[in-house]
Amino acid sequence: MTDRKSLIRNIAEEPWQQFPAHYGGALSKALVHPTTTGSQQIDYRISTYAPMAYVERHHHKVQEQVYHILEGEGLMEIDGEKRVVRRNDVIFIAPGTWHGIANTGLGQLTFIVVTTPVSDD
Known about the structure:
It contains no helices and ten strands. It has strands at 22-23, 26-32, 43-49, 54-55, 64-71, 73-78, 81-86, 90-93, 99-102, 109-116. It has one domain (26-116): Jelly Rolls (Sandwich), CATH 2.60.120. It is mainly β. It starts with 21 loop residues before the first strand and ends in a 5-residue tail after the last strand. The strands form three sheets. It has a five-stranded antiparallel sheet, with no helix packed on it.
């Protein structure tokens, strides 16, 4: 999608997908993304990870990210330090920070991820 216009979408309209470097049932819906809405400055996703699912440790050159945990618990690694994250935790990731998240809990780990500007890495 390349048109940029305001819109309303229902979450059910966007299919679940497993992005590269996401493993074991780490699924996301790209709700606001260049490919789904034509956005250029924001990538807004809801993700749900099955137990043992994870995203590889990685970093972004210029992008800032916010993770907002909605349900479940897991481990978030930030620059080599691992911490338990659970419902209502909000995590800010500065550019250049190595990070990853894994579902180490007993049920689904569901969270929002906001990236700005849109990541190209």
